[in-house]
Amino acid sequence: MANTIRIKRRAAGGAAGAPGSLFNAELAFNEQDNTLYYGYGVSSGSTAASVVPIAGKGAFADLTTNQTIGGIKTFSSTISASIDGNAATATKWASGINIAVSGDISGTTSTFDGSGNGTLSLTLATVNSSPVTGLLQKITTNAKGLVTATSNAVLNDIGAPTSSFSFNSQNLTGLADPVNAQDAATKNYVDNVAQGLDPKGSVKAATTANITLSGLQNIDGISVAANDRVLVKNQSAASQNGIYVASASAWTRATDMSSWAEVPNAFVFVEEGSTQADSGWVVTSNQGGTLDTTAINWVQFSGAGSYTAGNGLELTGNAFSVKADGNTITVAAAGIKVSDTYAGNTSLTTLGTVGTGTWQASVIGATYGGTGVNNGSNTITLGGNVVTAGAFSTSGANALTLTTTGATNVTLPTTGTLVNTAVTTLSSLASIGTVTTGTWNAGVIAGQYGGTGVANTGKTITLGGNITTGGDFTLSGAFTTAITVTGNTSVTLPTTGTLVNTAVTTLSSLASIGTITTGVWNGSTIGVAYGGTGATTFTTNAVLYGNAQGAIGATSTAGTWDSANSVGQLLSVDSSGTPTWTNLVDGGTF
């Protein structure tokens, strides 16, 4: 990466002007007056004889911004530029000009050269040459107020009246039915409102369930064709209900019920259908709803159609009633219930939860949670094995006695406690859990089971094999344990932990060690090849540098570095490749 050299500078907050002094060939830039200064010549030592401006728009003409230039400037050739100001001696232009105006206003001046005032006659352009004549005209103007078009006005072009308006005993014809509260009402609308209904054109069929509002389909036994009117009243989303026009593609709402104002009190007759023919339906939804958002609810209004009793029902006149079988179900004015004389049925296979009562039926088998045996006394006879899911205790004055007369399995619980104080020996027990309390008084525990394999009756522990430690092994103190090896015995040291023997200070035969994390190194100097420096001392503030496989070198500081005179020096490399300090960055010559 190339180095960046920053020249001497004065940033924001200082004063304008040149620095007091510079070294020869030294540069300095003052951001207050945007001038670059140069140290010119040599006065004494390396100090410049003078400081001169050499660049910057503070001292020289700038090509892009406005500047005020003092003094008289003489140009020997033509100036091609836009110049502001007044000519000292000029009285007219070199050649005359004409000024032309076009557009909505047009005109051209006579030729003038600036020695006098010019004149200009203007003509207003014609925008609309064919005005409309009539009793009332509508005029359109452009942004400049010129008339661009005229037409005969209609009522929409006239503002709302501010007083009563008379039709002079004439009829207002061609009105639409009212929508808003203050709309004019037609005779047809008033006649329908007087009946309390909003009659709609009849429909061919009516739905009995939710349908897809697209495609030609069968509705209540009727195959509807394109453009047939259908009453849709059973949609899962009631906001979709209404009168639709059938189509091979998506259905659309009928024009006489396509806005919410046409929904409340809408009334319609159904022409055909297996169950809905000749029935009349009316909407019960109120004003103030939103089409496709508010539910549209239909109820049957007229009894011209017929009703059919479904399964379990019977119809007598206009009254439906429940049909009972006369055995299991009783129907009365108070409701429907199971007959009091019904004694049960073999078809009954499922019950709910029985919370009260006494079981007096047959013996409950073991498969269903019973014993499978009739226990008529205090003795419980089991029909199979004994399996316990919790604690099993046989102690006390009335201890439970289990007598087996044949091969009987006893399954003990996996949790809880099994107690029998009379049992002291279980010779056939091959496996136990974790023993957390008590004293071991049985035979010697062999080494492969975690013991020593030897009966140690005194303070001396005799080992039957090698010593292997999985943790720390410490021999220290007033009663240091003595380990006597009488044969070929191996000692395996731990891979983790600490091995301590305070009597050992030298291990001359040790060829490899692990990671040493604490302590003080007091041995010989560690060479570069082994991660050391190969040196024993360094001069303060010296910089270390590599020296092949020899000791690491350090830069000299004598005569070139001190905190008072050498701040800001740079580290360079001399012709021999040795790092040295310098305070000179020479840009070279050309």
Secondary-structure blueprint of this entry?
Layout: E1 8-10, E2 27-30, E3 35-40, E4 50-55, E5 100-101, E6 105-108, E7 123-124, E8 137-141, E9 147-152, H1 187-195, E10 198-199, E11 205-206, E12 218-219, E13 222-223, E14 229-232, E15 242-245, E16 252-253, E17 266-269, E18 280-283, E19 298-302, E20 313-316, E21 319-322, E22 329-332, E23 335-338, E24 386-387, E25 392-393, E26 410-411, E27 418-419, E28 467-468, E29 473-475, E30 491-492, E31 499-501, E32 544-545, E33 553-554, E34 570-573, E35 579-582
Parallel strand pairs: 1-2, 10-17, 11-14, 24-26, 25-27, 28-30, 29-31
Antiparallel strand pairs: 2-3, 3-4, 5-6, 6-7, 8-9, 12-13, 14-15, 15-16, 17-18, 18-19, 20-21, 22-23, 32-33, 34-35
